[in-house]
Amino acid sequence: xxxxxxxxxxxxxxxxxxxxxxxxxxxxxxxxxxxxxxxxxxxxxxxxxxxxxxxxxxxxxxxxxxxxxxxxxxxxxxxxxxxxxxxxxxxxxxxxxxxxxxxxxxxxxxxxxxxxxxxxxxxxxxxxxxxxxxxxxxxxxxxxxxxxxxxxxxxxxxxxxxxxxxxxxxxxxxxx
Length: 176
Known about the structure:
Helix content is 28%, strand content 39%. With 176 residues, it is α+β, with helices and mostly antiparallel strands.
């Protein structure tokens, strides 16, 4: 499943980019679908920054999946490569549920648009039914479809909420 979203934040690109990269934990109160974010590691390299973050989300687990996954579907680890020279973020998500089955990666481009920032998010989500080892074989295909639809339904609103959270956060910071 392809994921494409564009959002606009009315602040300059360097500030928006740095806020996404450096203030992630401070953004949690502005993102209603997220319980918390823990920074696991951050390494400054000569031409980029690598970070690993663990996210804990909020939400309802689809009924078909509840017997096998509990809250794991709402927890994931995000692996990021921030390239300030191109104002881009390459990301890969490793879910804590169905880890062997889920492939999820993409790129965000932060584009200067007349003093505001346009964020173009592109990614791909795939769930391989064969990787759903803890689900009975006859139900794997259906479970993969349910999980993929569930995750896909969460992605676009969550990306929008994230951008809105950055806008609110920066609005508050500039008033202080």
